[in-house]
Write a structure and sequence with these properties.
Blueprint: H1 6-14, H2 19-31, H3 33-59, H4 80-101, H5 117-120, H6 125-128
Helix pairs in contact: 1-3, 2-3
């Protein structure tokens, strides 16, 4: 297009020109066939857009009101690695509780285990409750 009045034609159709400018553009439209075609195209597209908006408004007059979803029915998006970590932590905690609540093994053997009360032969073993207490009996000094 060789004519530089395209913007002015658009502004004329939108009603953005002063009365003096719009008279000059209308005079140019009477003389220029390219600008008359451009004016017809602008009017055609304006009508098409208006029709499309009217059709959209007829199809969906209003948006439906948002419904409140109860807390227990809401969905929570959790990444898979985070869910796997939570599952592992729960399983580990369960194993810990099982071990912590299991009865202790009474037959402890090893270098730190106290000898059984029957092998010591003293009657005071019942007072230490199986701990690491040792009783030394010192001989009496004679005078």
């Amino acid at each position: 297009m060789d004519c530089n009045f395209a913007v002015k034609v658009s502004m004329l159709l939108d009603g953005e020109l002063s009365p003096g400018e719009s008279a000059g553009v209308r005079k140019h439209l009477a003389e220029c066939t390219e600008c008359r075609e451009l004016e017809r195209d602008f009017l055609f597209f304006r009508e098409r857009i208006r029709d499309d908006f009217a059709a959209d408004a007829a199809v969906s007059p209003a948006l439906p009101a948002a419904r409140r979803v109860p807390l227990w029915k809401r969905k929570i998006a959790v990444p898979v690695p985070l869910a796997a970590l939570a599952l592992l932590l729960a399983a580990g905690f369960g194993v810990f509780l099982l071990i912590a609540r299991s009865p202790r093994n009474a037959d402890i053997s090893g270098p730190l285990a106290p000898p059984p009360a029957e092998s010591r032969g003293d009657s005071l073993a019942r007072f230490d409750h199986g701990g690491r207490t040792e009783i030394f009996i010192a001989p009496k000094e004679s005078k």
